[in-house]
Write a structure and sequence with these properties.
mainly alpha, 73% helix
């Protein structure tokens, strides 16, 4: 589960969707409806957040310094300060929706059928993002590397990308996929949209960890094994992030869209016939 979550979290294919579907397809003994299932998944996500902190350690030092400097000064004066505030604005929608919809969201985690359906929807979203992006490219003379940097998008665009991130509470909808897609619609290049998505993921995952992970220490779960899963998730996530940042120099979301549609349809068939 740790390797699965870490490998799929940053790819636009929904780690939550895979984490809900795969145990049912493989007939594993634990149940997604178990009270410890969501906290366990969040613990694995902390491994991903740790990998992103390592990958962007230099940027995060500058972002945190920029946040406090701009906050005390009351004015934004450089790109690091602006990026810090953009990430804050982008984090707020997911945080608000997570608090108010927590119980309803968790109920969806128990259904692999719904996760497979959302996985198909995720694939359609990825293809739609690319259709809209190609239309924008045809209207523009800009090359891929000439699109905007994350630090230069508007605060309204950051809020929209953050709102897209909230869709990932649905198992099967990829957080990285919808935020990269939102970044593309905001005028970012693919690689820069991936960078903004990965930076935006970190505070949301850490916040969820503070809320959910303490529930694991109420007793009755193998904490040592869970922590080992978190470490494996972090290793897989680091490798995934490095690959994706290179891939999005010229790659697009289309292959992942087709994969999600195919994987969702196959999963529904396997679940339906009990294979």
């Amino acid at each position: 589960m740790g390797l699965l979550q870490g490998a799929t979290e940053l790819f636009p294919v929904s780690s939550l969707g895979h984490s809900v579907i795969i145990p049912s397809l493989l007939h594993w003994s634990f149940k997604q409806s178990d009270p410890s299932f969501v906290p366990f998944l969040v613990l694995l996500h902390l491994g991903t957040a740790g990998a992103l902190l390592v990958l962007y350690r230099t940027e995060w030092v500058a972002i945190i310094r920029g946040f406090f400097t701009a906050a005390f000064r009351g004015q934004i004066e450089n790109d690091n300060e602006r990026l810090a505030m953009l990430l804050l604005v982008g984090t707020i929608p997911a945080a608000i929706l997570g608090v108010f919809l927590e119980t309803r969201i968790k109920s969806l985690f128990a259904s692999p059928y719904e996760a497979a359906g959302f996985l198909i929807a995720n694939g359609i979203l990825m293809l739609a993002f690319e259709v809209l992006r190609r239309r924008a490219e045809r209207r523009s003379t800009l090359k891929e590397e000439e699109f905007a940097q994350a630090e230069r998008i508007s605060f309204r665009a950051a809020a929209i990308v953050g709102a897209c991130q909230a869709l990932a509470f649905l198992p099967g909808i990829s957080r990285s996929g919808v935020t990269i897609g939102g970044g593309l619609l905001a005028g970012l290049g693919h690689q820069e949209a991936a960078r903004f998505s990965f930076l935006l993921a970190t505070p949301v995952i850490l916040g969820a960890g503070l809320v959910e992970v303490p529930q694991l220490f109420s007793g009755g779960v193998p904490i040592g094994e869970y922590l080992a899963g978190m470490v494996l998730a972090g290793i897989a996530a680091y490798a995934s992030a490095r690959f994706l940042l290179r891939y999005f120099r010229s790659g697009r979301l289309d292959p992942y869209g087709y994969y999600c549609i195919g994987a969702g349809l196959v999963s529904l068939a396997l679940l339906r016939f009990g294979l």
